[in-house]
Amino acid sequence: MNKLSRNLFIFILIIIFIIAFASSYLSLNIDNLAYILAIGIDKAEDNLLQVTFQFSTTTPASESGTMEKTPTITNSVEASSISTAINLMNGYMGKQLNMSHCKVIIFSEKLASEGISKEIYTLINDTQVRPSTNIIISKCTAKNYIQQTTPELENLTSKYYEILTNSSKYTGFMPDATIGDFFNCFLCRSYEPTAILGGLTTENNDMSDSIDSQGKDDVKANNSPIEGQNGSENIGVAVFKEDKLVGELSSLETISLLIIRNKIDRFLVSVPDPTGSSDYIDIYLTPKGSPKIDVDTSTPTPFIKLKTSFTGRIYSMSNNAKYLNPGVLDLISNSCNQYLETELSDYLYKTAKDFKSDINGFGKYALTNFFTTEQLDNYDWNANYKNSFFDVTVDTSVKSGMLITETSPT
After folding, report:
1. I need a surface site. Which of 137, 169, 171, 366 has the fewest CB within 10 A?
2. pTM (2 decimals)?
């Protein structure tokens, strides 16, 4: 092939590629796409779904050179399925909906209690939905949750959704619950799914009168003493048995869950002051390592041993206390042990007896006790977990905060 023929061949190939991909480029051009930040799914009448879409918009820089808070657009549609809702919204928006930047999926409590397997399968089957997308179960309607979400410290709502669960590492008040993990647990024999528990702040709901019954140190979303411009809040865990919502965990119970899962870096607890006063001491605890878990399935009633250890620093103190005194620190350490053992035991029995749901993943430790799949099926761990008994041991070593060593007056 001479040089002229080769150049002509290359030119023809280029023309073919341009023609072949021109329509694809035009349809997937960014100007023809509507990017979804959040999806809210509620139960509507006549067995329909109300699907709410939150879209991002762009805002140019203000005259002062600072970026203004970026507004969002929220639209809803009733349809028989999520796919139909997306198709209807495509026509209404005049653009193709794109879920590759969707950060959160919100289900209403009412819908979740009836089962969301169909919706989970639909979403996980969509290649645009990322497995890292967080799932929230809202105490209010999903539509209301989205409408009330107005981030105070972020100009971009997408950024707020993206960092939503970061605080779980140092507060333990919510899990990092993604649709990928939910789907895996839903299919798994040794794990049950969980989601983030969401709701409205005090000034935006009618539940403020029940705050006192919970206590300010142990709260849930939609029932906390928090007030602020951001009308939504996320505290606690939504507990599932298969695809149905069966219960909720408070903030302290969520800490227990994350301790067992080894998904928490540090957390604050208030323990009774063992020096004789009626005060409480705030202590920041850090796990020393992964908890040691042993599951005995030699009898029809599983026996589960949990051992965990922490180091702690005192963050608050009472009058006339000497926090470098080894005897005082030993008393505080023992108080922490008793407090955490009680909290963990109460939490574990709640998951077994009330929820009958192994959200802790003890089933994966039980798997090693069976030699065949038939033996595992006969034991039926997910059904048998409700018969479990627990033995919890906590070892805590508390140190003084070191800034103030004693509070006795001079």
Report:
1. 169
2. 0.85
